[in-house]
Amino acid sequence: MYKFLIVFDYLDFIDGDNITTRKERRGFLLDSSRNFKGIYIETRILLVISLVINFLIIILILFYFMSDSEGIFKGSSFYLSVNNSDDANDSGSRGIRNNNPLNIRNSFKNNWLGESGEKVDPDFEEFVSVEFGFRAGYKTLMTYRDKYKIKTIEGIIKRFSPPNENNTENIIKKISEMTGIPRSETIDNDEYIILIQKMAVIESGHLFDIEVIKKGINIK
Predict the structure, then answer these.
(1) Rounded to two decimals, what is the model's pTM?
(2) Which of 85, 102, 103 lies closest to 200, judged by CA?
(3) DSSP 3-state helix, strand, coil percentages of the chain (rounded to 5)?
(4) Alpha-carbon distance 115 to 112, whole Å?
(5) What DSSP letter does each residue of 66-92 carry, written as one string?
(6) Phi and psi dihedrals of 126, rounded to 5?
(7) To the nearest whole number, what is the mean pLDDT of the chain?
(8) Is 193 exposed, middle or buried (0-12, 13-18, 19+ CB in 10 A)?
(9) How would you label 139-164 residue by residue, b for 16+ Cβ within 10 Å and e otherwise?
(10) Which residues contact 36 (CB under 8 A, 6 or more apart)?
(11) Judging by beta carbons within 10 Å of its beta carbon (0-12, 13-18, 19+), is residue 129 exposed, middle or buried?
């Protein structure tokens, strides 16, 4: 049985005094032991192969991240993208395009103030500005609190992001970590604005300024 040997083209490996050509080097190395079969690879070829492999890896990584631009939960994975730019409209996420940072679904029962007259998205609400989107999000959470007595992160997320569509448990854990509010504790009135900010990060992939959210909440 033969052992397999890959020989790299380094001059330090060569001991022969009369070897001057690449062919002679290759022969010297591969014939030095008859118990070996091998191939001869030049260092410049190895360099080219390495560069090609690295290029392909970079392309795959870019493709992977570009294929998910919304920063949302998919399956058991959490994709989070935080954009600290003042101009949220530069983002390509669905919630940003719709000025609906919490991704509130369309419903014939709702006639939201600031709702866009030109509907493009068949599944989610669209607003004329992001402030009206935050107003709708706040009103939704207030309905949970006042009508359904849902006052904890766990209760809110189970209703807002049900398990049939989301990895609800992961969202609950992430929101609790981001806000610092224990999942089963009652949310204080002044904590809702923080909760909305973090929910928007998960739903739309953008970290909105608190003042923008306040403007929306204060629209009557």
Answers:
(1) 0.60
(2) 102
(3) 45, 10, 45
(4) 5
(5) HT--S--EETTEE-------S-GGG--
(6) -130, 135
(7) 80
(8) middle
(9) bbbeebbeeeebebbbbbbbebbeee
(10) 2, 3, 4, 5, 30
(11) middle
Question: What is the pLDDT at residue 6?
Answer: 52
- For residue 220, the number of C-alpha atoms closer than 13 Å in the C-beta half-sphere is 0
- 82-117: pLDDT as tens digits: 333 344 444 479 999 999 999 999 988 889 999 998
pLDDT computed for residue 104 by the predictor:
97
SS3 41: strand
pLDDT of 134 over the 80 cut: yes
Tokens at 89, concatenated: 């409209």
Alpha-carbon gap, residue 22 to 14, rounded angstroms: 11
Residue 181 vs residues 151, 171, 173, 189: alpha-carbon distances, Å? 12, 13, 10, 12
**How far is Cα 95 from Cα 188, in angstroms, rounded to an integer?**
26
Q: CB–CB of 102/203 below 8 Å?
A: yes
Sequence letter at residue 84? N
Residue 58 contacts by C-beta under 8 Å, 6 or more apart in sequence? none
What is the rounded distance in angstroms from the CA atom of residue 203 to the CA atom of residue 91?
13
